[in-house]
Write a structure and sequence with these properties.
The protein is α+β, with helices and mostly antiparallel strands. It folds into two domains: about 130 residues, Diaminopimelate Epimerase, Chain A, domain 1, CATH 3.10.310; about 120 residues, Diaminopimelate Epimerase, Chain A, domain 1, CATH 3.10.310.10. Helices cover about 15% and strands about 45% of the residues. It is built from four helices and 17 strands. The protein has a 17-stranded mixed sheet that branches. The radius of gyration is 17 Å and the shape is globular. The model has no long low-confidence stretch (mean pLDDT about 95). The structure holds ligand LBFN2T5F. Ligand LBFN2T5F binds next to helix 2 and helix 4. Pathway: Amino-acid biosynthesis; L-lysine biosynthesis via DAP pathway; DL-2,6-diaminopimelate from LL-2,6-diaminopimelate: step 1/1. Pfam families: DAP_epimerase (PF01678). Its main location: cytoplasm.
């Protein structure tokens, strides 16, 4: 079978996109999805996303996300932003979207390649002297440190990801350095890729909230600098936690292709 695919990237977090409205790809084919994401034997990507029809008539589409290891996983913020750009390319939406992903319904807007994605509310943030942990659709461990440029993110990240604290499920790990008030540099180790990626959308969302929660910023509009580019996160702190969380940044089509499966 020949599969038509589209490659997208959002601040360097890259994804294979497949229009699966006719259910051509099976979600259980872990080996195939892993091979499509392989940078030597396949197309190469941090993850693969299926755009499908949603069961909810109010949705424009549904998002099904797989990490590069071929396994379906929790929410991907940059992937969600890229999927909105893909839906616009396919003519499914114009400048606004509503879709269902593994963590629930998301609203989004798109204007001139800039996609803003509404994330789920965050109620709980764990904090101790060393790190913060929160779930922004995916689980994130956040550590503030200095000398971010010299950090071995793959080594240090995988030690935390596989530590007994996080058990079998593991976690994503974000290393953060404050650059100015309301602006932070972030490097992320992603589970399921098992390496540093150039950017992580749920990761920078977690970092923005962790920065506020730990008093490192008093701004509800945080700029995040990743190795792949700049993102912003806005939110409202409420008595219940954090709500009205929006992740914004560029999402671009890189190329279209066909691959033999
Ligand atoms: N790149 C993503 C996060 C994808 C999910 C993550 N690897 C996990 O399995 O938790 C993003 O942009 O949020």
């Amino acid at each position: 079978m020949k599969l038509t695919f589209y490659k997208y990237q959002g601040t360097g977090n890259d994804f294979v996109m497949v229009d699966n409205r006719d259910l051509e790809i099976s979600k259980n084919d872990t080996k195939l999805i892993n091979r499509l994401c392989d940078r030597k034997f396949g197309i190469g990507a941090d993850g693969l996303i299926l755009l499908e029809n949603s069961e909810d008539p109010e949705d424009d589409f549904k998002m099904v996300y797989f990490n590069a290891d071929g396994k379906e996983s929790s929410m991907c913020g940059n992937g969600g932003r890229c999927l909105v750009a893909f839906a616009k390319f396919l003519g499914i939406i114009k400048s606004t979207a509503r879709f269902t992903a593994v963590d629930g319904v998301h609203d989004a807007t798109i204007q001139e390649g800039l996609v803003s994605l509404k994330m789920q509310d965050v109620k709980n943030v764990f904090q101790n002297e060393e790190f913060l942990f929160l779930d922004t659709g995916s689980p994130h461990h956040v550590i503030f440190s200095e000398g971010l440029g010299n950090k071995n993110v793959k080594k240090e990240g995988s030690e935390i990801r596989y530590s007994s604290r996080y058990g079998k499920a593991g976690t994503n790990v974000n290393f953060v350095e404050k650059t100015s008030s309301g602006s932070f540099s972030v490097r992320t180790y992603e589970r399921g890729v098992e390496d540093e990626t150039l950017s992580c959308g749920t990761g920078v969302t977690a970092v923005a909230i962790a920065s506020y929660e730990s008093g490192k910023t008093t701004s509800e509009n945080v700029k995040l600098l990743t190795p792949g580019g700049e993102l912003s996160v806005t939110f409202k702190k409420t008595a219940d936690g954090y709500s009205d969380i929006w992740l914004s940044g560029p999402a671009m089509l890189v190329f279209k292709g066909e691959i033999q499966c």
